[in-house]
């Protein structure tokens, strides 16, 4: 029994390892890609809109291939249903991505990574506000550790930019709303959007419409007079830009798909643990490749924040194990107890019949 359990655990670990590496590749890749692209093409909202169009095309292609292979029709929502049920999730997602990309014009990769990790803080605050979680000392400790670590990381930072920090903080706030609404949307069985390919297909048009007004206000006029897009002197520059934008769309699509694979084949806990080590990898690469400067206090703040995130992951693991153990206990105990009770009743009735039979003789 123990050997079988150990073999199953090793099998899950062997399955998770390549999926984690795939997730790391897309997640770390798109972070450094966005910072690199903003240096040569400073129009983050336009980049986000073009990526949304590309993701929509790739998800439509994936749906068509899945339909040809299985023969089963895919989930299809009307525009009315999309606007009524998916619009809040789409708007928060588009603003989260758009503001995150916008912030790369002002902040370093290390500051972005650290601030973006505070999304867990907002998710916890929303959970406590809407009474999805009970107020516990451990949860308050998580909030204090993450908030304190974020303050220490940004305090007297030599590469701190207030405008970029506010953009990332707003993106983190919207990220907390985004993942809550997306989870609710995927859990509604009647919509049939459990597969992320389907939900990506339905959300991208709404996300495009939600982000376009922001793009028109802040980037429309500067873009119309820029040589970056409309006044190229060489065709090679245009083809180079198109290639860069296409690469970003592939990375964005791959990130969403790799997250789905990791969660569906392992668990959300695996994704959370992988996210912690991913942030360590990004900070290490940012300091060595991009020259981000971090003081001892900044590193200490990062460690404090990671300890809060790790505590949150441990609490999730303990809660999930407790719920699973309780479920197994109920399943194991209900039927045998009933069967034992019935056997005792039958034995009692047989003994009474044996006693009555001699008396009749």
UniProtKB/TrEMBL annotation:
Under the heading InterPro entries, the entry gives: Sugar_P_trans_dom, TPT_transporter
Q: Where, by residue number, does the polypeptide cross the bilayer?
A: 40-65, 111-130, 137-155, 161-181, 201-218, 238-257, 269-290, 296-315
Q: Which PANTHER family match?
A: SOLUTE CARRIER FAMILY 35 (PTHR11132)
Protein's cellular compartments: Membrane
Q: Per the database record, which ranges form the Sugar phosphate transporter domain?
A: 19-311
Question: What species is given as this protein's source?
Answer: Mycteria americana
Q: Write out the entry's keywords from A to Z.
A: Membrane, Transmembrane, Transmembrane helix
An annotated GO cellular component of this protein is: membrane
Q: What is the name of this protein? A: Sugar phosphate transporter domain-containing protein
Q: How does it sit in the membrane?
A: Multi-pass membrane protein
> Cross-referenced Pfam families, in alphabetical order?
TPT
